[in-house]
Amino acid sequence: MAEEQPKFKVVDRRPFNADGTPRELPPEEKEAAERAAPPPVPEVKEAPVPRAPEPPEQPEREARPRPTAARDQARAGRDPLDDPASFLSLIMSLASNAAASLGMMPHPVTGETDVDLKTAKHWIDVLGMLEKKTSGNLDEQEAQVLEGLLSDLRMQYVSFSSSPPPTKFSASDITGGK
């Protein structure tokens, strides 16, 4: 038994020829296209959207205080260090790494204080880079804390790099009894 192959009619419904010119449709295809086409959508004219006035040009970098999370928290009566995502928390975390590398903080497990000048220099340099990159963009408290931490850490680093570190010392020895 030989099966008969079904016959298919292939109709090219593309509106353009291969070279990009519009294709002429035979009359029966035009009628079919008109029946299948959705009804035209009436045009709706939209009212023009008013544009906001452009702000006046400002100098490239302006040393003006900007609103920060620390200032908002201070207004709300909260300590900025309670927010782990605040800038002060970030610099305190980086400074504690530097302080631990300078032996200013005991190791949490052993309780011993070790000095690693290479690691301490790395963390001090990171804090210095942050100070430089954020210059003019910090509020007064953030700028003072960062400047104070950097000056204390740099002084401690210089004192250790110029002479061997003492075997045992306390935080009051480092901060001058403060």
For this entry, give a set of tags.
single chain; 178 residues; mainly alpha
H and E order = HHHHHH
Number of helices: 6
As a percent range, the share of strand residues is under 5%
Rounded to the nearest angstrom, the distance between the terminal CA atoms is 107 Å
What is the SS-derived class?
mainly alpha
Helix content: 40-55%
Contiguous low-pLDDT stretches (5 residues minimum) are none
Write down the overall geometry.
elongated
Rg (CA only): 36 Å
The count of β-strands is: 0
Largest sheet: none
Can you tell me about this structure?
With 178 residues, this protein is mainly α. The chain has a domain at 69-175. Helices cover 43% and strands 0% of the residues. The protein is built from six helices and no strands. It has helices at residues 27-36, 69-75, 87-101, 117-133, 140-162, 171-175. Helix 3 runs antiparallel to helix 4. The N and C termini lie far apart (107 Å).
Structure described in brief:
This protein is mainly alpha-helical.
What are the SSEs and their pairings?
Elements: H1 27-36, H2 69-75, H3 87-101, H4 117-133, H5 140-162, H6 171-175
